[in-house]
């Protein structure tokens, strides 16, 4: 059973996952958080400034920056035994690196969530090696309150990190760009921001609920020879948006691969 959970590094992403778990009804008493700067933990969650000595947890989740891994791993390793499931959300920290740094762990799972975990709406990519089916099912169940867990081969982590981990930032840029474009055409800036956000929220919810693909939905918005088609023609000219999206994802995926190299133990 994955009852007790130690989160090491509870910043933006670790904090979002903790919020999602608590909102999903998991008892706060199951969580212990180690973080040097977190002002306070949610009610019922134990907050420590340093790693606990001699304690054992069913799950240890690494939530520090990837650049910290080599420094903190030797102090974390004594907490980890064959009964521990090690989870890592560190971009670029490969399973082989985790195996070198935490050889005693009963299971090691690499995870790529995003900040929407806080509201239970994150894609959650997971990769592992040599895990027994029961423990794998327990990890999946632990991720369920955070969104949509999917086990994937580890060699897809660079692109999945770019798409699903970094992706919210790209969407936020697009919302800002829509709002700035509308403001430049004369709309009040605050109103433009509200309308852009509501448009993206509604479009995204509809696409998620619809039997139709996003491409088909775009076709349904665009009346022949109308307003939308005039705008789509700009996005589609020379595949401008498609190329920009691919270049954006490639830059993020390449950086993830570089970080994996730098983090290799
Ligand atoms: N942000 C995101 O959307 C996503 C992030 N990730 C991954 O999540 C990890 C964390 O990123 P993010 O949350 O953005 O980063 P943050 O800097 O917000 O969080 C990391 C936290 O760990 C703390 N910390 C530093 N050293 C230790 C230590 N020795 N023991 C315990 N805690 C420590 C940091 O404190 P201090 O500030 O003092 O260093 C900070 O509070 C990264 O590895 C990243 O790749 C993955 C997916 C998405
Ligand atoms: O930017 C980063 O490196 C992390 C990984 C994915 C999202 N944030």
Automatic annotation (TrEMBL):
InterPro entries named among the record's database cross-references: 6-PGluconate_DH-like_C_sf (IPR008927), NAD(P)-bd_dom_sf (IPR036291), P5C_Rdtase_cat_N (IPR028939), P5CR-like_CS (IPR053790), P5CR_dimer (IPR029036), Pyrroline-COOH_reductase (IPR000304)
EC nos: 1.5.1.2
Subcellular location: Cytoplasm
First and last residue of the signal peptide: none
Keyword NADP: yes
Domain Pyrroline-5-carboxylate reductase catalytic N-terminal: 5-92
Enzyme class: oxidoreductase
Protein name per Swiss-Prot or TrEMBL: Pyrroline-5-carboxylate reductase
Species annotation: Novosphingobium anseongense
């Amino acid at each position: 059973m994955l009852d007790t959970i130690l989160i090491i590094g509870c910043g933006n992403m670790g904090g979002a996952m903790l919020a999602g778990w608590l909102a999903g009804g998991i008892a706060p008493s199951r969580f212990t958080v180690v973080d040097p700067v977190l002002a306070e933990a949610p009610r019922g969650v134990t907050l420590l400034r340093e790693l606990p000595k001699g304690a054992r947890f069913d799950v240890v989740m690494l939530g520090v920056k990837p650049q910290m891994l080599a420094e903190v791993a030797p102090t974390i390793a004594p907490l980890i035994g064959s009964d521990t499931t090690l989870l890592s959300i560190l971009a670029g920290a490969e399973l082989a690196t985790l195996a070198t740094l935490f050889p005693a762990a009963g299971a090691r799972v690499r995870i790529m969530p995003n900040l929407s975990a806080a509201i239970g709406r994150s894609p959650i990519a997971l990769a592992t090696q040599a895990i027994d089916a029961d423990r794998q099912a327990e990890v999946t169940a632990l991720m369920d309150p955070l969104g949509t867990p999917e086990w994937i081969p580890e060699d897809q982590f660079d692109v999945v990190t770019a798409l699903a981990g970094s992706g919210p930032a790209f969407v936020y840029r697009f919302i800002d760009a829509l709002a700035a474009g509308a403001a430049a055409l004369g709309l009040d800036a605050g109103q433009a921001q509200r309308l852009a956000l509501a448009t993206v929220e509604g479009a995204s919810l509809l696409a998620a609920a619809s039997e139709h693909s996003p491409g088909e939905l775009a076709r349904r918005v665009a009346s022949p020879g109308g307003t939308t088609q005039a705008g789509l023609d700009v996005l589609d000219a020379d595949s401008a948006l498609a190329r920009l999206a691919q270049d954006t994802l490639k830059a993020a995926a390449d950086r993830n691969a570089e970080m994996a190299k730098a983090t290799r133990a």
